Amino acid sequence: MTAAVDFDQAIHDAARLLRRSTHAIALVGAGLSAESGIPTYRGTGGLWTKFGEPTIDGWDLFLTDPALWWREALDGRHAESAFAKAIDSASPNPGHHALAELEHMGRLAHIITQNIDDLHRKAGSRHITEIHGNRFLVRCTNCGGRDRLSTISLDRIPPLCPECGGILKNDTVMFGEPIPQDALHECYRQTSMTDLFLSIGTSAVVYPAADFPVMAKRRGAPLIEINPEETPLSEIADVVIRASAGQALPAVVELLHQEL
Ligand code: NAD
Ligand code: ZN
Fold it and tell me: Which are the catalytic amino acids?
């Protein structure tokens, strides 16, 4: 069989499963945003594949001196600032738009994203859990409340929560930092409800996110994987689309539209 036939067949199979499901959810990783110009960590061309994994314990550094962390962040002195610039100038790509369209069509109930880039919201998706936070938000280390970074006062460093006076940090989950309880709870809730799981552009090696598709599959939900490269999920997936998300997702949406 040629690759093109495999692709067409996989798109058909994915559309068929989406048509049958009543609560499909997607776990999304950095691969979805690769076509928006944001580098992934792992996989071909990934930042860590090229430069090795960082060992920095960001959460410990933040706790030790939140004011220093904020001053360095505002001065653009953090190691990840080139990565942050790529996120700041990025726009949603056809993959993000297709996911938003699936939600509007009533075919996708929820997105669990590992991405911090805000591109789902920019594309028009509404039901999103950002398990690793959002670069454009701040979160209170005391009450967990979130605000847009652009709306808080930076006259005082570290900035304080307008609700409870706790220290604010960037919402992005740092190395060593526990995943916020509200986000984690919603991920488990969605995973326990789903009857179709899509894994899109994730290397599926970062926990706890990598567990969600396995848990859903164990409960009987079929699994669709969209990734140009093999992952640990590939062998348990019911449908594997070996293509970029920007190519695969619009093709699935088009097929669903044709068959309405
Ligand atoms: P990852 O970097 O570990 O893996 C990326 C995966 O995407 C790989 O399996 C790769 O084969 C696949 N991929 C590459 N291009 C693709 C494409 N066009 N379409 C579909 N798939 C493609 O990413 P991860 O699994 O999300 O885990 C890394 C962590 O790093 C995440 O937890 C996330 O918080 C963070 N991160 C976020 C961003 C972002 O916000 N855009 C970017 C990089 C890393
Ligand atoms: Zn607070």
Answer: 132
Asked, for residue 150, whether it belongs to a domain, the answer is no
Ligand 1 pocket residue status of 212, Cβ below 6 Å: no
**Alpha-carbon gap, residue 213 to 221, rounded angstroms:** 9
What CATH number did the domain enclosing 14 receive? 3.40.50.1220
Q: Which domain holds residue 19?
A: 1-38+91-136+177-260
Which of 74, 56, 80 minimizes the C-alpha distance to 158? 74
Q: Which of 15, 179, 7, 134 is nearest to 125 (CA)?
A: 134
Number of domains in the chain: 1
Residue 46 lies in a domain: no
Q: What is the pLDDT of residues 196-237, one digit of tens each?
A: 999 999 999 988 999 999 999 999 999 999 999 999 999 999
Low-confidence ranges of the chain (pLDDT < 70): 1-5, 48-56, 79-81, 260
Is 46 near ligand 1, meaning CB less than 6 Å away?
yes
User: Per the domain annotation, does 222 fall within a domain?
Assistant: yes
Q: Is 206 in the pocket of ligand 1 (CB under 6 A)?
A: yes
Out of 40, 97, 231, give the residue to mutate to test ligand 1, the one with the largest number of ligand atoms within 8 Å of its CB: 40
Structure tokens at 143: 């009450």
Q: Assess if residue 63 is contained within a domain.
A: no
Residue 26's SS3 state is strand
